[in-house]
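cron nightly-structures :: item 1 of 1
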Amino acid sequence: MENEKNIHFIEEIIREDLASGKVKQIHTRFPPEPNGYLHIGHAKSIVLNFGLAEKYGGLTNLRFDDTNPTTEETEYVESIKYDIRWLGYDWGDREYYTSDYFEKLYEFAEKLIKKGKAYVDDSTAEEIAAMKGTPTEPGVESPYRNRSVEENLDLFRRMRAGEFPDGARVLRAKIDMASPNMHLRDPLMYRIKHEHHHRTGDAWCIYPMYDFAHGQSDSIEQITHSLCTLEFENHRPLYDWFIRELEIYPSRQIEFARLNLDYTVMSKRRLLQLVTEGHVKGWDDPRMPTLSGMRRRGYSPEAIRSFCEHIGIAKRENIIELSLLEHFVRQDLNKRAKRLMVVLNPLKLVITNYPEGQTEMMSTINNPEDEAMGTRQMPFGKYLYIEREDFMEDPPKKFFRLGPGRHVRLKNAYIVRCDDYVKNDKGEPVEVHCTYFPNSRSGADTSGIKAKGTLHWVAVEQAVPVEVRLYDRLFSDPNPMGHKDRDFKEFINPDSLTVIPRAMAEPAVREVKAAEYLQFLRKGYFFMDPDSRSDQLVFNRTVSLKDAWSKIQARKK
């Protein structure tokens, strides 16, 4: 039985509407503007809209809000569709565009003009803004507000015909310039833009404003529950006004808190800045909160969906810890990621008593969480690579890795003891000499020798050089947008990307598939980057193994 505590307020409304017969079948929509790539905040809305429809036997439309030709591109349309499908959702044959309704919206506008509820205003943008007033002072009516219906119709039709330049005139709703709600102070409905539209070409030179087009598009599609983020709460009275005046299907708008993550910027305009100014390498840079960036970094769609479902839907804005998202990524990848041994910062280890030229194959489990993933064979020999940080010349007592006289187990192989080491002319260790114990092979430890630490390793002769990119948070401040007197870009983390050009991987790395999730033992979860070539494999670190969120929660208990 479903836990009723997990039912959020929107779901309660939907249940009530279905039970009362107010709606026979719920119909939601996801309405992205095709002016950028989707980010994790959009994922929350996608999971909400498609998830509710799936749960209650309803439908979800995909509708592109393409009312601003200056910022929209077909590239963004295709990326949005790809991202939604990647998350595991499909809209069937219900793919719509606000531009599909341009003619109908124009008819709606003329209807309002004929009712005396809309007028053409010749004022400049600056004059209109000044006439709006303030939240505590009423606005001033435009000198063009009382034009006749005939004059308004004539001017609006001439606007459509292209007789006037950009900015010369606008169409405004005639509501209430003294309303305490600024959105009801004669809002703009249409503006002139002589711009080529990515779908309608040059057929139109006037375009509807979002506040006019959005609600009417919902109505045309008979959306039962129009789910919006909280910034549109003050827009709802205008949304309802248009519906009443036009006497059309009354979609119900319900607002919820958008997703805010710490150490992250979620504004598409700010993300575009990061891309165009070269602070990142594109919309799909693995440091970006875009779905394409997260996909390239190695986040699974299942982890993102689980995260969105876990954080739930609320009426109040709050900030979610990025470490919580990373926690869900780790939980998911731990079950599905194939294990590999990769040494990021190699230090040569020589087993002095191991036969020269001999190679043994060590059986290695691909994933201890999933027996069905089986095992693989890994070559072992006299010369190995270990991590440089796994050796210390003078280790402290609780350092359970290699040091003079210390024993460690080489994962799935033997126990070795450090006997000596070699330094270069800078005084840095470059080679560690060890003795191995033949009877201590993993799975048959009869040597009586104990080793507290276990190290990963790669055989020198069969090692495959790979490039590894270690990603950290893009911003060093938990709230980069929260400083009014400073540019958010000042908080870009200079260490958000560290490139290791020559890590050493076991031979099985050559068999890794493009979309395969990996764990490099002791180093984190990794994913092959599209930059990879057959002669140069590149891997992005998705997340480290350290689960900061779980540790914080454990301390709270």
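cron nightly-structures :: done
DSSP finds 13 helices and 25 strands in the chain.
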